[in-house]
Structure to design on (113 residues):
């Protein structure tokens, strides 16, 4: 059974940092592209970043140069290092495996101004 479990969210002041983690289980983590998405209050879920199996990395333009996606395949873990956080980064952050459409439960990030 595929499972994705995020952690690391919290409340942080504007300009602060958080590191999110997503642990995958029930599948060979290193064989899949993995994504981060987020959903702000009252808005649709949006894509944030991707780390492909081939090492391709890409970011939503508004987080590029502030966020860094990484992965540890040996420990089936996806990370999102978020620096210089802004209030508009507030939302629930999800990791996602597109193959099979698997989502985690999300972790809440709140950035206060």
């Amino acid at each position: 059974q595929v499972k994705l479990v995020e952690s690391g969210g919290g409340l942080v002041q504007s300009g602060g940092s958080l590191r999110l983690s997503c642990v995958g289980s029930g599948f060979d983590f290193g064989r899949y592209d993995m994504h981060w998405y987020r959903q702000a209050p009252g808005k649709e879920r949006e894509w944030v970043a991707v780390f492909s199996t081939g090492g391709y990395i890409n970011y939503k333009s508004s987080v590029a140069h502030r966020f860094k996606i990484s992965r540890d395949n040996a420990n089936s873990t996806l990370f999102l290092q978020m620096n210089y956080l802004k209030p508009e980064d507030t939302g629930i952050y999800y990791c996602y495996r597109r193959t099979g459409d698997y989502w985690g439960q999300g972790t809440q990030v709140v950035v206060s101004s």
Summary: The mean pLDDT is 98.
